[in-house]
Amino acid sequence: MQFIRLVFISLCGLAGYAISVVQPDLLPSEVHGGLYGLSIGFLWVGIDLYFQGLSLRSFSAATFGMFFGMLPALILDASGLFVYAPERIQWVIRLITFVGFSYLGMMLSLRSNKEDFYLLIPFVRFSPKGIKHENFILDTCAIIDGRFLDLIRLNFLDGVVIVPKFVLAELHAISDSSDPNRSESGKRGLMFLEEAKSDPKISIRIHEADFPEENDVDAKLVRLANMLQAKLLTNDRTLGKIAELNGIIHLNPQDLTRSLRHQICPGDVLPLRIQKAGKEKDQGIGYLDDGTMVVVNHARELLGQLIRVEVSSLLPTTAGVMVFAELERKSS
Q: Cα–Cα distance between 250 and 157 in angstroms, integer?
């Protein structure tokens, strides 16, 4: 990018020099021509740097708004309201009218969203043909969880990851919280987003749409997902139910993790490392790879050892399943 800017500034300087040679009446000398050209090049590069945060969507929306802002200015100009004013004043009135209405049109379009354009042109929706991309909108808890990175890298999710601007603002607010645990969660989420941006396999976009009339972030997420016809990636079960009621597909990484767990049945023999003593006498406790706790009878003395245990029973809990096991019986 910097190289292109330098080339552009150099070309502007050469163009100014060339104009001064071809049209000496316009510029007093070749040096002045080159300086004027360089000045114009630096001016355009400065405008480019100033608007470097402007997306293509914002630029097209501003152009669209400027076009429609000029329509009432043209109508006023053609109405003959200013014909009795002196000609010099008419020129000033026209300039103020066109600039003012163009500015208002640009500002209104930048504050609007796609739904407003659909209301303005109700039967026209622009969508690319032959290219099908799935959009996945991330909410705050899914970003903090971070498992979306692995799902994309392992090709379980294939498409464009969308992070709404209001979700990003909420994440920044969490990272600035006075609560250390909450602040750490927000910073972890921002770290995951930076990691996603630097990964060439992940296509991630910051979406600028906002809905000022909605106070709740969940309501904004549902509305944006509905507008973009995107899927919603979230760990929040309440938000998932709201999405379902609105006909939006939602994906929960926790549900995926649970569905991929190995189905343990009584009688299965498992390798297990005893990590700590249990509450009852002679009990030892170990954990499976997915975090499931296994309570093993007569294993207290085997702390730190990798042993084989036989599942005796399963106890469903609110956190999942607790497994009870015995030491493997050695066949005689």
A: 13
Per-residue pLDDT tens digits of the chain, which is 332 residues long? 678 888 888 888 888 888 888 777 776 777 888 888 888 888 888 877 776 656 666 777 778 888 888 888 888 888 877 777 787 787 788 888 888 888 888 887 766 655 455 444 444 444 444 445 678 898 998 899 888 888 888 888 888 889 988 999 999 999 998 988 889 988 999 999 998 888 888 888 888 888 888 888 889 999 888 888 889 998 888 888 998 888 889 888 877 776 766 678 888 888 989 898 888 888 999 988 777 889 999 888 888 889 999 999 888 876 667 889 999 876 54
Helix axes 217-228, 237-245, angle to 10 degrees: 40
pTM of the predicted model as reported, rounded to 2 decimal places: 0.47
**Angstrom distance (rounded) from CA 46 to CA 12:** 14
Distance, in Å, from the CA atom of 37 to the CA atom of 15, rounded to the nearest integer, reads: 6
- Whole-angstrom Cα Rg for the chain: 32
Positive or negative CA dihedral for 163, 169, 170, 171? positive
Q: Which residues pair with 276 in a beta bridge?
A: 285
